[in-house]
Structure formats: C-alpha cells, structure tokens
Amino acid sequence: MGNHEHIKAAEGDRHFHRLGWKRLTIVLIVQSVALGSLSLPSAFATLGMVAGVILTAGFGMIALYSSYIIGLMKLKYPHLPYYVNFGHLLMGGIGDKIFSVAFMALMILTVGSHCLTGKLALATITQSNIYAILFSVVSAVILFAFAVPPSFAKISILGYIDFVSIIVAIGISIIATGIQNTGPVSLDWSSWAKDDLTLSEAFITISNIVFAYSFASAQPSFMDKIHTPKDFTKSILTLGVTQTTIYTITSATIYAFIGQDVQSPTLLSAGPLFAKIAFSVALPIIFISDSINTTVACRFIHGRMYQQSVVRYVNTTKG
C-alpha cells in the first residue's frame, strides 16, 4: 500500500468510526421499530390479547438477549465486520455461505416489505390504485436514494426525523381508532385465539412477531463503525425497552379499539381521512428505516469485493 493509499485508509477509518452510542441507538431504533409497530395489531387479532402480549414481550426479551450475545461476540472478535463472519467462525466456509445467503435474503425481503408498504402508502394518499406498479418503482427509487450515504453516522441524522415520525404515526393510529368507537373499547376483541385458527396461520403470525424483532443481524455492521464498541450495551438496552414497550402497548391498545377487523398495516384501519394523514406522517418510517437495511447489504457486498483494498472505504474515485 502506497503513501496515498495509507492516507485514504486513515481518512476512511476516521470517517466510518464516528458513531457514538446515542447515534447507534437511533440507527437501531429506526432500523427495527418500523413496520412491526404497524403490523403487530393484526397478530393480536389472530392470537388473542393474552398470547399476543406474552409473545410480543417475550420475543422482545429474547431479541435483547440475542443482541447482547452478538455484541459480546463482536467485542471478542472486533476484526469481524459482518454477521456473516460469525457463520465462518462457527462452521468454516460452509457456514460463511449459509449465513451470507440468509443475511442477504433477510435484507432483501425486508426492503421488499417496505417497498410494498410504500406502494400502499402512496396509493392511500392519492386514493388511486391505478398506478400500483409505478408506486412500487417510486418506492424502490426512494429507498435506494436514502441508502446512498454509506456512513451510518450520516444516516443517523435522518433517524431523528424517522423516530418522530414513528411516534406521531402510532399516536394518530391510536387516536383515530379510538375516535371511531362509540365506547371505550371494541366489543369484538378477545383474550384468546380465534376459534378457527389453523397451524399455518399461527405459524405465520408468530413468524411476523419474530420478524419484527429481526434487527440483530445488522448490529455487527453498526458496531464496526462505533468509536467506543463497549458502549453497545447502552444502545441495545435502550432499544430493547423502547421497542418492546411500543410494540406491546400499541398492538394491545389498537386491537382493543378495533377488534378482529384490524388490518395490516394498522394505518389502513384508521378510516380514509386519518389513513391518508397517518400514511403521510409515516413516509419517513417506510423509506428511511429500510434504507438502512439497503446500506447494510450494499456495504457487505462492497466490503467483500474490496476487503483487501482501500476502495472499501468508499472515499476514492473507484469506491
């Protein structure tokens, strides 16, 4: 490596290690507390209030513990930049391939889910389903545009806007669904699972709850950019409490207000006017949140292609 490349490597290290634990918390919250808060009330309608609360809170604790273990692994093996590298550590080359496929599939399917929700949001706001394919393309382009900045420190700045968007959209959903009921709660909700629940429905519903907590696979990528890695415990504790509280309280409250007719995403249950308002407010959730998953996936591919080159820092012409 020549002198010019040494300078570029030093610049790259400074640029990509500016993430503090507070910004890491915002990145984690934005990346994880997104579609789950809009889809879990429908899971309560399938499983019932009791099982819904227990599973949502329970999986939240499991996700927090898993995140803690992954963080300890990252501290012990700081030279491993991606979750995929843990597969190589466990099972060699085969593990690396299995984890790579699973990791990329999770990122791509998550982005696809947000792209679909973006299409629904644009269709609801414009009150038109004619341009469904065009709305999907527009959503994909916006997701890509927000993913262009390769530094998580830069993305975290957008995260503050996104976090406010999450809270406001959830608030609108709860208020709107509450206003539409004549009594304090709907008479249509149940403590127990619906009578005709099938195994496949239960499996898919529980999988949706698990999917809502699937943030830990991106955590090593974030921790690789934090300037004080041992501070990750502050971030995941804040995330765990915030995410579990939002998911459980929001889902239980909206399900109690709406009952079995709750839709997914929940904003569709708020009525035409409130749905348009809520989706307008929720646009940052839909697009900024998942742009982080796009960045994680692209950084992984780019890092693998140029892992022995200064190009990996993305601060050269070729990068």
Automatic annotation (TrEMBL):
<feature type="transmembrane region" description="Helical">
    <location>
        <begin position="160"/>
        <end position="179"/>
    </location>
</feature>
<protein>
    <recommendedName>
        <fullName>Amino acid transporter transmembrane domain-containing protein</fullName>
    </recommendedName>
</protein>
<keyword id="KW-0472">Membrane</keyword>
<dbReference type="Pfam" id="PF01490">
    <property type="entry name" value="Aa_trans"/>
</dbReference>
<feature type="transmembrane region" description="Helical">
    <location>
        <begin position="236"/>
        <end position="258"/>
    </location>
</feature>
<feature type="transmembrane region" description="Helical">
    <location>
        <begin position="50"/>
        <end position="70"/>
    </location>
</feature>
<keyword id="KW-0812">Transmembrane</keyword>
<dbReference type="GO" id="GO:0015179">
    <property type="term" value="F:L-amino acid transmembrane transporter activity"/>
</dbReference>
<feature type="domain" description="Amino acid transporter transmembrane">
    <location>
        <begin position="18"/>
        <end position="312"/>
    </location>
</feature>
<comment type="similarity">
    <text>Belongs to the amino acid/polyamine transporter 2 family.</text>
</comment>
<feature type="transmembrane region" description="Helical">
    <location>
        <begin position="24"/>
        <end position="44"/>
    </location>
</feature>
<keyword id="KW-1133">Transmembrane helix</keyword>
<feature type="transmembrane region" description="Helical">
    <location>
        <begin position="82"/>
        <end position="109"/>
    </location>
</feature>
<dbReference type="GO" id="GO:0016020">
    <property type="term" value="C:membrane"/>
</dbReference>
<feature type="transmembrane region" description="Helical">
    <location>
        <begin position="270"/>
        <end position="289"/>
    </location>
</feature>
<feature type="transmembrane region" description="Helical">
    <location>
        <begin position="199"/>
        <end position="216"/>
    </location>
</feature>
<feature type="transmembrane region" description="Helical">
    <location>
        <begin position="129"/>
        <end position="148"/>
    </location>
</feature>
<dbReference type="InterPro" id="IPR013057">
    <property type="entry name" value="AA_transpt_TM"/>
</dbReference>
